[in-house]
Amino acid sequence: MGDIIFEDFNVNFETRKQNVKSVRDMNLTIKSHKITGIVGESGCGKSVLSLSILGLLPDYAKTSGNIYYDNKDITALANRVREKYLGREFGYISQNPSESLSPIRKIRKQFYESLDLVEKNKAEIEKKSIEILKELGFEKPLEVLDKYPFQLSGGQQQRVLTGIAISSSPRWIFADEPTKGLDENIKKDSLELFKKLRSFGIDSTLVITHDIDFAKNLCDEVMVMYSGQIVEMGIDVLDNPKHPYTKGFIESMPSKGMKIMEGKTLSPTEDIRGCRFANRCGCKTKRCDLESPKLYNYENSQVRCFLYDKGE
Amino acid sequence: MIKVSNLDKSFGDKKILNDINFTLKSGEILSIVGDSGSGKTTLSKIILGLIKPDRGQIIYEGVDLVNLGKKDFKKYRKDIQIISQNPSSFFDPSMKLGRSVIEPLKNFKLKLDDEKLKDLIEEFKLDEKVLARYPHQVSGGEIQRLSIIRALLLEPKILILDEPTSMLDISVQAQILDILKRIQVDKNMSYIFISHDMEVVEIFSDRVLNLKNSKLI
Lengths: 312, 217
Ligand SMILES: Nc1ncnc2c1ncn2[C@@H]1O[C@H](COP(=O)(O)OP(=O)(O)OP(=O)(O)O)[C@@H](O)[C@H]1O
Ligand SMILES: Nc1ncnc2c1ncn2[C@@H]1O[C@H](COP(=O)(O)OP(=O)(O)O)[C@@H](O)[C@H]1O
Ligand code: SF4
Ligand SMILES: [Mg+2]
Ligand SMILES: [Mg+2]
Description:
heterodimer, A: alpha/beta, Rossmann fold, eight-stranded mixed beta sheet, 29% helix, globular, B: alpha/beta, six-stranded mixed beta sheet, 35% helix, binds adenosine-5'-triphosphate, binds iron/sulfur cluster
C-alpha cells in the first residue's frame, strides 16, 4: 500500500507549434515508507513528473498511461476527487516558494489553511504552527507568522513552505528542491528535518534535488533522470555511478573541480530512435543510434545503457 | 569601478546592514557570501537603486547613485544589471519569453541583434523553442538561464549574480559558470557574485567578502 506505480506514462505539452515530451514511457515504482531522491539535468522532467502525481499539470498537458496509488489509477479520477488528495495524502513543497506562497496574505493565514484540514481548534493550530517553525530553525516563530512572504529572504520562504506542507501530516511529501537558497547550517537543519518526517506522521518522501550531498545523506534510493527518462536508479548510484551520464554528472560537482560535460541535451520536442544520451556519450557504439536502451539490472542498480545489457 | 561606503540599512528595528564598505574593481569577480537572511539580496537591491539605504554612498563613475532621482539613475541603470535569485518574478507571466527577454532592450531604446540572441541561446545550452513559451511553461533552470541572457543582451559593465545557479543541476551549473567567466574576461566586465556555496565561490571568484552580523569582512 502507498506505492506510486507508473505504467507506460507519458506527458506531452502540445501547442500549435511544438510538442514537448517531458516524460517518456515511464515505467517505475516509487516505494512507500522510503525516501527517494531524483536528481538530473535541469529541464529533464523532474518537476513535471511530480506534478503528474499531484494532479497539478496544466489542462493542456496530455498524458497517456497510468499512475496507480493504493491500487487506484489516480489519472482516471475526477478532478474534484483528486484535489482531495492534496494536503491529506500528498503534501507538496514546490520549487518556487514565491509562486506557492500567496504574496498578499500573512504566513499565519497560510499555515492555518493547511492545518485546517486536520485540526479545527484555533489554539491548537497556533501551537502546532509555532512548533513546526521552531523545528525548522526559526528562533522567533511568532514574528514569522506575522510577516508577508516578501519580508522573508528566499531561504526563509523555502523553509516556511516546507512547514506548511508538513503541517497537515500527509502520507507522502513531494519536495522540489527544498534546500535551494539555504546556507550550509540551515541545510543541515533541513536534512535533519527530512530525516525525521516520520514523527510528523509522514513516512514516504520524494525529493527532487540538485544537491548531491543532501541526496546522499538523505535518500534510501536515488533515481537519475535525463531527457524525460530515468537512466539509472539504485541505492548507491551517487557513490558508484554506472551510466555514462551519471558519471559525467558526478564529475561536475564543485568538490570534484566542476568538470564540464560537453554537448547539449536533445530537445524534448525531438524524437529519435536510439539512446537519448548518444550525442554526448563517449562510450557510444553503433547500436546506440539504432535502438533505445531499456533499464538493465546490474549489480544493485538498474541502468539504461547497453554497456550493462547482459542479454538476459 | 564602484565604491560602496558607510552603508546602513534596517528593516523596522532590525539592522540588516551596518557600515558596509567595499570597492569593486574593474574586471574582477568579487564574491559576497553569507548565511541565508544575512542581507546579501538587500545589499544588491540597494546597489541597483531598488531600495534606499538609511545612510551611505555608492559611487559609480564619480556620481553618488544613492541620491540620484529616478530619471538620472536611468543613465546608469543599463550599466548595472542583476540576475535575480528568483528569476520568475522578473518575467511577466502573460508575456512569451521571447518577448520578455528583449523587453529591457526596448526600455533603453536599443536594437535587438538577432544573431547575438541566437548565439547566447546556443551558448547557454538552451533550446530556441523555449522563446515561444510562457514563463510557467519552462523549467526552473531554463528560466534562470533566460534571465542571464536577458541581462547580458544589455551589455552591462557590472553584473550582480544573486545565486545565479540556484535552480541548475551541477552539470549545467558547471557549464554556465564556465560561460559566465569567459564572457566576463572577453568583455572585461565586473561581477558581484552572491552565493553560499563556498566550493563554487573558491573556483569562480577573485576575491571573497563575508557578510556576517550585518558587517562585511
Ligand atoms: N506547461 C508546459 N508547457 C510546455 N513545456 C513545458 C511545460 N512545463 C514544463 N515544460 C517543459 O518540460 C521539460 C521538463 O520540465 P521540468 O519543469 O519538469 O524540468 P525539471 O527537470 O524540473 O528542471 P529544473 O531542474 O530546471 O527545474 C522542460 O523542457 C520544460 O521546458
Ligand atoms: N521588505 C522587507 N521587509 C522586512 N524585512 C525584510 C525585507 N526584505 C528582507 N527582509 C529581511 O532582511 C533580512 C535579509 O534578507 P535578504 O537580503 O533577502 O537575505 P539574503 O542574504 O538571504 O539574500 C532577512 O531577515 C529578511 O527577512
Ligand atoms: S546506450 Fe550507448 S550512447 Fe547510451 S549511454 Fe549507453 S553507451 Fe552511451
Ligand atoms: Mg524543476
Ligand atoms: Mg537572497
